[in-house]
Amino acid sequence: MTESIHQTQIAAATAYEALHVPALFKQWAQPVLDAVGLAPGDRLLDVACGTGVLAREAAARLGADGQVTGLDPDPGMLAVAQELAPGVVWQDGNAESLPFGDHSFDAVVSQFGLMFFVDRLRALGEMRRVLRPGGRLAIAVWDSLANAEAYPIEVALLERIAGEPAANALRAPFVLGDRQALASLVEGAGFASVAVDTQVGKARFPSLRHMVEADLRGWLPVMGVTLDEALIQQILEEAEHALQAYVTADGQAVFDAPAHIVTAVRPAA
Predict the structure, then answer these.
(1) 3-class DSSP state of 134
(2) pLDDT(168) > 80
(3) Neighbour-count burial for 159-189, b at 16+ CB within 10 Å, e otherwise
(4) CATH code for the structural domain at 2-265
(5) How far apart are CA 125 and CA 33, in angstroms?
(6) Are 255 and 122 in contact (CB under 8 A)?
(7) Per-domain residue ranges for the chain?
């Protein structure tokens, strides 16, 4: 039974890496690492690393001069991450209880993970603990759902056809869109010099079908929602009409995907 669950998690993580990472997440690795001020020799921790796109970019930048550790609680995500980048240290663990000593890292990053932590304040406190005094933090979260162009339409479609749990799984990434509340959360964990920079990325899927399948077959299973095939096909068919406004002349699905990058430092004292 355990092995079956593990294989299901690997399948979901593989779909996530193939469908979501190139369309949404890869573009944010460079801005997040720029924001944290990555320097030669840095020891960097990527919290909620998923399949490791941010950690891989950090490892490429640092080379042999630094050390990159990626942490995630999902064994499927870590299995895919390990296969893609065996040179990175991949660690099983939760953000709320980081399995590292005090002052272990020069920089901590987290890309689109903070929204899903059970106790966000405690997780941020743990990030602060493992940073050295003066160490840097950079976290990316999505802007509000209302600013995500195509996704409010898809959420409404999912709620009508598949029900509230499916719709809520797609709403979940957008719950930290309020800039002031986000800054207050990070300040409340004891960080200093907190700043929030909103940048507008582009979601770019090969087609509408790829976009919606990325959610139905990649994202929803990660969030514990699995739909039967008949329901998936119904949603795919209706999405072709509901989201047609975001289809380009060459058939891609393209729309704005704004996100906040919050930066902070651990006080020296």
Answers:
(1) strand
(2) yes
(3) bebbeeebbebbbebbbbbebeebbebbeeb
(4) 3.40.50.150
(5) 21
(6) no
(7) 2-265
How far are the Cα atoms of 127, 133, 156, 171, 211 from residue 151, in angstroms, in the given order? 30, 40, 9, 8, 10
pTM surpassing 0.70? yes
With a cut of 80, say whether residue 4 has pLDDT above it: no
- pLDDT tens for each residue of 239-256: 999 999 999 999 999 999
Q: Tokens 């509408």 sit at which residue?
A: 208
Give how far Cα 243 sits from Cα of 82, 147, 166, 254, Å: 36, 15, 18, 10
Contact call for residues 243 and 208 (beta carbons, < 8 A): yes
CA separation for the pair 146, 226 (Å, rounded): 25
For 98, the token pair is 């980081």
What phi and psi values does residue 159 have, to the nearest 5 degrees? -65, -40
